[in-house]
Amino acid sequence: MTPRPRRSALYMPASNPRAVDKARSLDCDVVILDLEDAVLPDMKAAAREAAVAAVRAGGFGRREVVIRVNALDTPWGAGDLAAVAAVGPDAVLAPKIRTPADVAAYERRLLGAPASTGLWIMIETPQAILDLAAIAGCGGRLAALVMGINDLAKETLARQTPDRAPFHAALTLSVAAARAHGLAILDGVHNEIDDLEALARVCLQGADFGFDGKTLIHPSHLAICNDAFSPEPSQVAWSRAVIAAFAAPENAGKGALRVEGRLAERLHCAQAERLVAIAEAIEAPA
To answer: Which of 2, 47, 81, 268 could be 109's S-S partner, Cβ–Cβ 3.0 to 4.6 Å?
Structure first.
């Protein structure tokens, strides 16, 4: 499957029709229609109907459309899953995952959904961090992990410092688990809406850790996030040179080459192909 950019995933409360409509024109790679944290209890049913209507109406272009449902142990979870499975968004985002059994429960609820509907899960509990390998290896529809640092901080009592040091282990282990099982992985939200300098720092940190992109809570964060998680032109140029070098007939069978003064191994060729595919997808017309 061709890799696709997921640099920016913007949460939008499904209960706000103006916000959902605006999302169709914003420069984000993923729109997450939220039925959970962003929606008050007395608006849950209306938000569900609005999310289903938005998916049916379409108009999101090449953006992935994901619906974050309420947890199955809430009064709204089962209804959310039934409605979402019927309409078939690109993915369903399940919150408060603790064990592989939780993933399996959501998988069963999506049996009637189109095969193209993936399952994304929130990594936001201490139990999930301690069982990452098993959770990421559940298979089936599971396609992505999404960090929920706010909930993780709440449950661990860790402080959210500017460098996010208390969460480095959780972040890096989550990336490792995702990569071990071929899953996408998105970093958690940045809470300080107006502190764009801090946002730029944590976006670059997330890119350094290996995340595909970041979840966001405000459109003003999109440009910074997209820039941080986009391949740099110099990286794209070198990657194309690596691909060309290994494709040359005279290099057939070689495991390592010198490309523009740098060592390139076969493993670098696979990395280069993925990076170029992402860059081309970003540059493609909407």
So the answer is: 81
Residue in this structure with the two tokens 């959501």, named with its chain if needed: 106
Q: Positive or negative, the Cα torsion across 214, 8, 31, 218?
A: positive
Across 18-99, the runs of DSSP E, i.e. the strands, are 30-34, 64-68, 91-94
| Angle between helix 168-180 and helix 196-209 axes, rounded to 10 deg | 50
pLDDT at 257: 86
Q: What angle do CA 137, 142, 146 make, to 5 degrees?
A: 95
Across the chain, which distance is largest between two alpha carbons, in Å?
Answer: 68
Where residue 286 falls among pLDDT bands split at 50, 70, 90?
A: low
55-112, pLDDT tens digit by residue?
A: 999 999 999 999 999 999 999 999 999 999 999 999 999 999 999 999 999 999 999 9
Q: How confident is the model at residue 1 (pLDDT cuts 50, 70, 90)?
A: low
Residue 96 CA to residue 74 CA, distance in Å, equals: 11
Distance CA 253, CA 65 (A): 42
All structural domains of the chain, each given as residue ranges with its CATH number in brackets, are 8-229 (3.20.20.60), 233-283 (no CATH)
